[in-house]
Amino acid sequence: MAPTAPWKSGVLFGVKTAPLTKHLAFPAAGVAGVLLLSCMAAPPSSVLAFDGGRVLAADPTEAEQVEDLLARLQPELLGLLPDTAFEDLDVWIQDTPSLYSNPTEASTDAEGLWSPTHQRIMLSRHADHIERTLAHELTHAALGESWGMLPGSMEEGLADHVSGALCESGASRLRAGRLSSACLATGGVSLQVDVMPRSDQARTGWSAAIRLKGEAEGTDPMDVFRLAAGLSSTRLESGAKRGFYGLAYLAVSRIVDRDGYEGLQALCLRATEQGLSQVPSSWILDAAGLDADATSWRRAAAGAMGEAELLELVRMYPSFISDSIEGYLSSTGASPDVIANLEVEIGLREGTAQVRLSQLPELQEQLIADLTSRQVDTLQVASAHR
Ligand SMILES: [Zn+2]
Fold this sequence. Notes:
By secondary structure, the chain is α+β, with helices and mostly antiparallel strands. Helices cover 40% and strands 16% of the residues. The chain contains eleven helices and eleven strands. The strands form two sheets. A six-stranded mixed beta sheet has the order 1-5-6-4-3-2, with helices on one face. The radius of gyration is 22 Å and the shape is globular. The N and C termini lie far apart (59 Å). 48% of the residues are buried.
């Protein structure tokens, strides 16, 4: 069984735009040792009690907004997932979600936390999508005993999947973040980018095969069943952690697509019946149609991305578009004032989704204005074509 820990991290390293090369410094000392020296955080000042718990926030308006979310999410979650129930719980709204007054570095980019010991959810008021983060933490809070059979990081995949199902407005952003993280951990996201003028009769264009690479490249996907990436006691670099959240999300979504949440829970019940300590990884691979090889995970993740997810991916990592436009300019010798008339087509080389930059007019304008930024480590193979 996984070791128990004081809290689980939530929509961690979510889908906010961060350079792929970002490297967080984690404390050299064990997190548990750091926590022992920390003081408990003071509760937020405004308290709103309701049937089923309390919301503690900065002011009554903020507390009521979160209570409204709870009133919708809790019954929907119970209707969606078998073997779930809520005890009375507290939801604290904080700038940085933490049990302690001095958050450790390992937790400072978590947008939500769940402490089973305190029956408390801690949410960042600055979360990318506060409703989705709350739904993720509520999933941890509601899961009954049978779900404890899920190995490694799989519970994080389940909490993410449920949050996407309950919060449609944030779902494609979540899917894009998690599926791209799964690809980045297992070899990268391979894209085909074509740049060409919209009104040039000759249609002289520029093409590139681009691979977005992450620092977690080379992850053994089977580690998703061994490591509990969401536990505060699990020390992982941010890229690796993000990768495991992505891999867990991918496996859960493939099982739920085929057999529903009931099918996933059936694996837990069968493992219990057979006296196992957790669901064997081979059962999850079979149910998800995956194998132990990283290639099967990467292709599955790329194949699961549709147009909405690919557009989100472009929003998250726009610098590869800038690079491509610069590549077009330098290979054709065109002057920069043609940029506004260029179309950029982006396709997944291991998937079917295809989008155009003009589908994101705001980003297109921003890129035209800012073509010098370079954030993504890319591998480019360029060739002019006609
Ligand atoms: Zn979580």
